[in-house]
Amino acid sequence: MHDTDLSGRVRALLREHPGSQREFAELIGMEQTKLSKSLSGTRRFTAAELTRIAGATGVTVQWLLSGTEDDPGTAVAVPQRTARSGDRDSTGRYQQILDATWRLVAERGYHAVRVADVARACGTSAATIHYHFPARGDLLTETLRYSVRLAFDRQVAELHSIDDAHERLLRLVELQLPAQGRLRQEWSIWLQVWNESALDPDLRVLHSDSYARWHDTIARTLREGQRQGVFTDRDAEELAVTLTALIDGLGIQVLAGRPGRSVERMRRVLHEFIQREVLRTTEGNTTWPTT
Fold it and tell me: What does the UniProt keyword field contain (predicted)?
């Protein structure tokens, strides 16, 4: 991937944006001078900037980087933006509604968010919300899909330039720690996806698809580490099952505020697991602890 290709795709998105370049920069929380330098190729977009651009425009980071969605290990199959054609402000309003609903669901819970709450947060009317999302269920389901895409966009943006599998795996762990801020909000929504998918068959499909992609991301990283000779030759699928389950369990405990469970301890336990069970030892093999 050449930076000029990336800059060209961002310029194409900017041409579609109804406002000015300055307004686009404000939308993605970026200084206009930095945006101009990145568009001209004299500065690289950061991972956080790529994630915000993707979120604001309805594309994925995978498309920004490659121009395609062909990599099943990193791309997420989510609907493209559904803003009504012919309405100049439609795309921006649609995204504003999703962002507001995402924050409200993370803070209050899936069932506590009303259409009126979203309208108030957006400074608009309930009729406008229903214009983009005819039913409340549509709004909440698309918000959950959006949250899944945000998480995978961040992973693609952070990992695309990391070739070393060990470094990549540690970065994946870091991206799953429920620290304060956006990561913790993502965890809040992900827990709600788990809960709702146990009751709603439609959300069960969303959960199954997104979790399969997360599992595959880990498994592919493990297989790459085996090819590089830095990871044990144990079955990558089984290691991925164990590692993802460990991340899930620790994350839930941290988010629930269980005494003695912290982000720092979660990081340490996961790093120790990788050191003990995943990394190849100096003798050329790694063994499981005996019972």
Answer: DNA-binding, Repressor, Transcription, Transcription regulation
Contacts of 56 (CB under 8 A, 6+ apart): 27, 28, 95
Q: Look at the block and give the residue holding tokens 């997420």.
A: 76
Write out the two tokens for 47: 């991972």
Query: Of the candidates 109, 162, 117, 141, which has an alpha carbon nearest to the alpha carbon of residue 207?
Result: 141
Query: Residue 262, exposed/middle/buried by CB under 10 A (0-12, 13-18, 19+)?
Result: middle
Contact 37, 46 (CB under 8 A): no
Residue among 44, 53, 51 nearest 16 (CA): 53
The C-alpha atoms of residue 280 and residue 250 are separated, in whole angstroms, by 24
The pLDDT value recorded for residue 181 is 84
Q: Which residues of 110-134 are buried (b: 16+ CB within 10 A; e: fewer)?
A: beebebebbbebbebeeebbebbbe
- Tens digit of each residue's pLDDT (9 = 90 or more) over 132-167: 999 888 888 888 888 888 888 888 888 888 999 999
What is the pTM assigned to this prediction? 0.77
> How far is CA 286 from each of CA 147, 231, 272, rounded to the nearest angstrom?
37, 8, 13
Question: Is the Cβ–Cβ distance between 255 and 247 less than 8 Å?
Answer: no
pLDDT in tens, 17-40: 878 888 888 888 899 899 999 998
- Render the burial of 272-284: b for 16+ CB within 10 Å, e for the rest: ebbeebbebeeee
| Distances 19 to 25, 89, 124, 260 between C-alpha atoms, Å | 10, 9, 19, 49
Report the distance separating Cα 142 and Cα 199, nearest Å.
Answer: 17
Query: What's the Cα-to-Cα distance from 189 to each of 77, 146, 155, 244, rounded to whole Å?
Result: 18, 10, 17, 17
